[in-house]
């Protein structure tokens, strides 16, 4: 049985798609058959981050409408074995995603995948609701910034009430926090919320911290999931995070600032 | 605290702690509304209006929440009266 994971946040621009791409690539690299689904109908972008934008023929909505079957719409990643992408449609029809349609596509994907990663759109409208509705696990992506933390709390409320697990009285959706764009030096100066503060406010368990890094923009420019850039800090942070998600304990490596020689002398 | 931090902290207020305090307050308030029935905000403003017929109180003087204890739901109403001057 496949596990359905929603990557969500409420607020836009915090790193949902970057995290979805990294998580999917990381799980596939670990040997799991993984598909990552773009739920952002109208604003397709996962294909660009995954570097397969020129290979999109059919999309999520085509499959729902019976204009293509799943095998025609799924794009096989050329770098990682066992990784597939289901792109979003660019239709302007807000109602293109139907409850029954999403359910049947997820059931179809569950037959031959271990993990289904649902890349949620921003906001709390239909697309975001459907992305989280069938989830077993939720990755909540948050920036250390007041509006992002508040929106994440709102999304946690929805995960606890507006999901299949909540409605059927099953075990609740397992929530994991990912803090992105973290700058330990600014936390040290008291200018940025710390990871501890964010965990305390949201009362949710931390999965990983991704440092503010040039590697994220570079990877998206090139259409490579940043986790595949082994030598970068953000790539390593995502690698740790995926390992932890799979149950392997790994220390948090990116909570402290890297101190230069001068920094060491003055800070002791 | 390092040698230079002393001077830095003199220069600007540490905004991270302001962020944390503000978030804790707003998140707690939004959670209490979220867990309760949909009519709570309307009920809250009606009660505020009734109280204002008799006493001058602040906008946030009435706090209302539903607590569940087993099968029992308790509606908790908290009214802060102004200090007598």
Automatic annotation (TrEMBL), chain B:
<keyword id="KW-0131">Cell cycle</keyword>
<comment type="function">
    <text>Prevents the cell division inhibition by proteins MinC and MinD at internal division sites while permitting inhibition at polar sites. This ensures cell division at the proper site by restricting the formation of a division septum at the midpoint of the long axis of the cell.</text>
</comment>
<dbReference type="InterPro" id="IPR036707">
    <property type="entry name" value="MinE_sf"/>
</dbReference>
<comment type="similarity">
    <text>Belongs to the MinE family.</text>
</comment>
<keyword id="KW-0132">Cell division</keyword>
<dbReference type="GO" id="GO:0051301">
    <property type="term" value="P:cell division"/>
</dbReference>
<dbReference type="Pfam" id="PF03776">
    <property type="entry name" value="MinE"/>
</dbReference>
<dbReference type="InterPro" id="IPR005527">
    <property type="entry name" value="MinE"/>
</dbReference>
<protein>
    <recommendedName>
        <fullName>Cell division topological specificity factor</fullName>
    </recommendedName>
</protein>
């Amino acid at each position: 049985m496949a596990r359905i994971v929603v990557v969500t946040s409420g607020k836009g621009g915090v790193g949902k798609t970057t995290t979805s791409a990294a998580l999917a690539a990381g799980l596939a690299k670990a040997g799991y058959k993984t598909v990552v689904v773009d739920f952002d109908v109208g604003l397709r972008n996962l294909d660009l981050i995954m570097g397969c934008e020129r290979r999109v023929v059919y999309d999520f909505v085509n499959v729902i409408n019976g204009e293509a079957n799943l095998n025609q719409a799924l794009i096989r990643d050329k770098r990682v074995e066992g990784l597939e992408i289901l792109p979003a449609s660019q239709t302007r029809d807000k109602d293109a995603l139907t409850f029954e349609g999403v359910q049947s596509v997820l059931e179809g994907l569950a037959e031959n995948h271990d993990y289904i990663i649902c890349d949620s759109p921003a906001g709390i409208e239909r697309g975001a609701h459907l992305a989280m509705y069938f989830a077993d696990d939720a990755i909540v992506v948050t920036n250390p910034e007041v509006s992002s933390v508040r929106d994440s709390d709102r999304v946690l409320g929805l995960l606890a009430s507006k999901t299949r697990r909540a409605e059927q009285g099953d075990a609740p959706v397992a929530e994991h926090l990912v803090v992105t764009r973290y700058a330990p030096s600014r936390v040290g100066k008291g200018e940025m919320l710390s990871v501890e503060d964010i965990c305390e406010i949201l009362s949710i368990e931390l999965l990983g911290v991704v440092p503010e890094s040039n590697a994220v923009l570079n990877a998206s420019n090139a259409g490579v999931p940043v986790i595949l850039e082994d030598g970068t800090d953000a790539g390593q942070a995502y690698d740790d995070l995926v390992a932890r998600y799979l149950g392997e304990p790994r220390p948090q490596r990116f909570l402290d600032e890297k101190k230069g020689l001068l920094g060491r002398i003055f800070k002791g | 605290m390092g040698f230079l931090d002393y001077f830095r902290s003199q220069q600007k207020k540490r905004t991270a702690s302001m962020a944390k305090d503000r978030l804790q307050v707003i998140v707690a308030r939004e959670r209490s509304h979220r867990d309760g029935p949909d009519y709570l905000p309307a009920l809250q403003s009606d009660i505020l209006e009734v109280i204002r017929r008799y006493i001058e109180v602040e906008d946030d003087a009435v706090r209302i929440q539903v607590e569940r204890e087993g099968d029992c739901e308790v509606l908790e109403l908290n009214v802060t009266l102004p200090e007598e001057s």
